[in-house]
């Protein structure tokens, strides 16, 4: 009897040990930044994934956006890094992204729903890789303080209004209500290109050489400089910091100091939460220029990184998060424009959005369909961030009077050429 | 009763004596343990070389964290591309140095190929000159005042030293909050009937506040050095001057200043070196703006290496080597002046 009990105990211990071995956990780390509540929502979704996949534990490392832009590339270049990351510079980081096509259940689903955006994440020449999915599609566009317009008694420009129409109206409002920022643009090359594309900027490559400064670019740059001279834009945003530093005007907009704020769809959730009923704000379609009425697309993608040693688990996680049901919940709760074509067609039910936010999301959703093909191409260009940074750095100098527009054009071209040449140098 | 207690011939009392006994005992055990191997090493290399054995641990750390990075930096400065490991980087020789030094006129940043580097150099020079003058002046005056028998002297010493304990980022954020459009200072100005001043939009104001904040944050440290120097001056020299009826200015000029000179020299050189290296406070306070009016050399290096999409470690490395060369020369000057004074 004693012997039988002893043997049963051994068998039980062995089975427990075996089960523990079979359930050995793989830990995946995600480097993640948040503009609003998306970190919180993602955490919820990950916990549900872990419940269904007991062998995988996912850690969401929340970092500032600056760490994604500056620290992550250095980590990846040194062969270090997390398993996945939420990034915006898809073209720039494309060489470090892992292709999980072999580890997803249905590659056709991915192509069908994320296809156009997957191209942004692929190295030039590759047309098949599945490195990740869009957690958010963004589109640049303006927010307007409707209450200030009403207080000033100035009529708001209508559909198909030009940039000049909006600048004139915003200045009139600001003068009447003593608002310090008639028009504010985020200090970002991406936002500047929202204006530049409508003015006809192409950022074309001729003879293997990228031409960042063309007639459309010059028209946009001149508008920005003239607006600064005329007091339509304040030097506090583009002039107050140097180099490639980003400076948003979201705080100023929330404080009702900005009449017309050129930013983008990703601000909707935070404005909905922070402005509340302090004043009425709306999103309006991107103003028109001589070329079109297009803004710039963009967005953030959750991508697999080559530094991961768990491609199968990464593929499984991405399959789960990119599935229609989970992606739908993510976009709906975060108030993001979907980067999933099927969901974009069906429409997202933003249940938690106020009427103002829902209306803004409708405007941005409609704007996606009006984006010019040039805007998509520029966004997908691996050198786009080089051009954006050079543009914002040099135009920032022009608006404070450090240099002239002509000199800035030469410097932008030289900066871009030098950086591209440096990137091409290989051992 | 322990051996230690017996050796002192009297029983120790209280917990502190027990702790001391434990410490001494541990030290004895450690010495007994290390003695044989150290003797063996001494027999092997000779007594004359033993100091190097004791210096070795520090030298290893110094080599690993100072000399090795300097070497890597130099390698980066003569190689190109975006690779992080030296083996991935093609040799480009002096290309980066030539690019940095390619100027029509060194007095005109716009004529330089790498104009932002020279704007950084110009701004750093301006900052250094103003900061040195202000820092030495205010530290000296403060030290002189705190050296007098005033009421609450200890309190004031602590007050002036307190900002030194703060992180430079915290200092910059506090002042940013005070100086921004809707900050404390503008609130005071408008309450007093004045106009708001956009301090970070005007190049002159931005540089002024960069210097001011830096002086405010570090003055306490230099004041302390000068105060120590003032307290080391023998009182009888002053008493003799007083008996001779020497005027206060003459006392300061002929007694205090010459006897304080060694400390003053240390302060001057430390301020100079720190000014050339300035980055964190100014970067957080002004972001280098307006335009590039407060962009310093170190910010240029940081931006070139990390903030651009193409992280140009080579060009940043070359700029670092040039900056290092300037600091090396400044250190040599300090050594020369200190030794001349001592001799």
TrEMBL record, chain A:
The keyword Amino-acid biosynthesis does not apply. It holds the Pfam family SBP_bac_1. It is found in: Periplasm. Keywords: Signal, Transport. The keyword Signal applies. Its main location: periplasm. It comes from the Bacteria. Residues 1-24 form the signal peptide. SUPFAM superfamilies: Periplasmic binding protein-like II. Part of the ABC transporter complex UgpBAEC involved in sn-glycerol-3-phosphate (G3P) import. Binds G3P. Belongs to the bacterial solute-binding protein 1 family. The complex is composed of two ATP-binding proteins (UgpC), two transmembrane proteins (UgpA and UgpE) and a solute-binding protein (UgpB). This is sn-glycerol-3-phosphate-binding periplasmic protein UgpB. The lineage of its organism: Bacteria, Pseudomonadati, Pseudomonadota, Alphaproteobacteria, Rhodospirillales.
């Amino acid at each position: 009897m004693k012997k039988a009990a002893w043997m049963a105990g051994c068998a039980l211990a062995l089975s427990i040990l075996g089960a523990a071995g079979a359930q050995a956990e793989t830990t995946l780390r995600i480097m993640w930044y948040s503009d609003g509540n998306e970190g919180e929502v993602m955490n919820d979704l990950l916990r549900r994934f872990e419940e269904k996949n007991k062998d995988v534990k996912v850690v969401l490392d929340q970092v500032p956006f600056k760490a994604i832009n500056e620290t992550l590339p250095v980590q990846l270049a040194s062969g270090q890094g997390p398993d996945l990351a939420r990034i915006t510079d898809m073209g720039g980081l494309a060489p470090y992204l892992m292709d999980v096509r072999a580890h997803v259940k249905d590659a056709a689903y991915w192509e069908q729903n994320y296809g156009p955006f997957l191209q942004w994440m692929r190295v030039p020449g590759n047309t098949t890789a599945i490195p990740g999915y869009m957690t958010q599609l963004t589109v640049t566009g303006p927010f307007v303080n409707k209450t200030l317009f009403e207080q000033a008694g100035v009529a708001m420009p209508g559909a198909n209004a030009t940039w000049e129409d909006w600048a004139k109206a915003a200045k009139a409002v600001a003068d009447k209500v003593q608002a310090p920022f008639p028009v504010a643009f985020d200090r970002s090359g991406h936002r500047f290109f929202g204006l530049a594309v409508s003015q006809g900027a192409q950022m074309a490559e001729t003879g293997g050489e990228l031409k960042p400064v063309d007639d459309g670019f010059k028209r946009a740059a001149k508008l920005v400089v003239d607006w600064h001279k005329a007091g339509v834009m304040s030097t506090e945003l583009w002039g107050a910091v140097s180099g490639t530093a980003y400076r948003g005007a979201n705080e100023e907009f929330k404080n009702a100091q900005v009449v017309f704020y050129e930013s983008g769809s990703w601000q909707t959730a935070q404005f909905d939460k922070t402005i509340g009923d302090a004043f009425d704000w709306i999103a309006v379609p991107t103003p028109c220029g001589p070329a079109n009425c297009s803004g710039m697309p963009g967005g953030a993608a959750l991508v697999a990184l080559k530094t991961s040693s768990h491609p199968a688990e990464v593929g499984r996680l991405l399959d789960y998060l990119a599935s229609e049901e989970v992606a739908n919940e993510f976009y709906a709760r975060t108030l993001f424009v979907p980067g999933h074509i099927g969901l974009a067609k069906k429409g997202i039910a933003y249940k938690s959005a106020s009427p103002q936010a829902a209306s803004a999301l409708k405007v941005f959703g409609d704007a996606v369909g009006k984006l010019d093909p040039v805007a998509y191409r520029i966004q997908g260009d691996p050198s786009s961030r080089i051009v954006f940074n050079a543009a914002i750095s040099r135009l920032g100098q022009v608006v404070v009077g450090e240099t002239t527009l002509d000199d800035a054009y030469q410097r932008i071209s030289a900066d871009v050429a030098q950086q591209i040449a440096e990137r091409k140098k290989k051992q | 009763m322990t051996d230690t207690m017996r050796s002192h011939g009297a029983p120790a009392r209280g917990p502190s004596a027990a702790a001391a006994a434990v410490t001494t005992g541990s030290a004895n055990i450690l010495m007994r343990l290390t003695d044989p191997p150290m003797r063996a090493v001494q027999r092997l290399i000779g007594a004359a070389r033993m100091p190097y054995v004791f210096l070795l641990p520090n030298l290893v750390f110094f080599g690993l964290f100072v000399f090795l990075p300097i070497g890597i930096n130099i390698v980066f400065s003569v190689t190109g591309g975006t690779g992080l490991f030296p083996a991935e980087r093609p040799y480009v020789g002096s290309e980066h140095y030539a690019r940095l030094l390619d100027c029509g006129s060194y007095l005109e940043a716009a004529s330089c190929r790498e104009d932002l580097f020279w704007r950084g150099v110009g701004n750093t020079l301006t900052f250094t000159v103003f900061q040195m003058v202000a820092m030495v002046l205010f530290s000296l005056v403060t030290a002189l005042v705190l050296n007098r028998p005033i009421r609450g002297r200890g309190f004031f010493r602590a007050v002036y030293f307190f900002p030194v304990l703060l992180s430079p980022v915290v200092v910059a954020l506090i002042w940013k909050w005070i100086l921004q459009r809707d900050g404390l200072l503008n609130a005071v100005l408008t309450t007093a009937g004045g106009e708001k001043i956009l301090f970070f939009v005007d190049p002159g104001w931005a540089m002024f506040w960069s210097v001011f904040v830096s002086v405010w944050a570090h003055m306490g440290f230099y004041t302390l050095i000068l105060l120590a120097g003032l307290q080391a001056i023998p009182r009888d020299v002053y008493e003799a001057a007083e008996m001779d009826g020497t005027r206060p200015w003459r006392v300061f000029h002929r007694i205090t200043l010459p006897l304080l000179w060694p400390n003053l020299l240390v302060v001057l050189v430390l301020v100079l070196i720190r000014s050339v290296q300035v980055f964190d406070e100014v970067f957080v306070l002004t972001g280098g703006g307006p335009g590039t009016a407060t962009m310093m050399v170190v910010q240029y290096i940081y931006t070139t290496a990390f903030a651009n999409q193409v992280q140009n470690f080579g060009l940043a490395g070359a700029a670092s080597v040039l900056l290092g060369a300037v600091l090396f020369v400044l250190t040599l000057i300090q050594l020369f002046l200190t030794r001349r004074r001592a001799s």
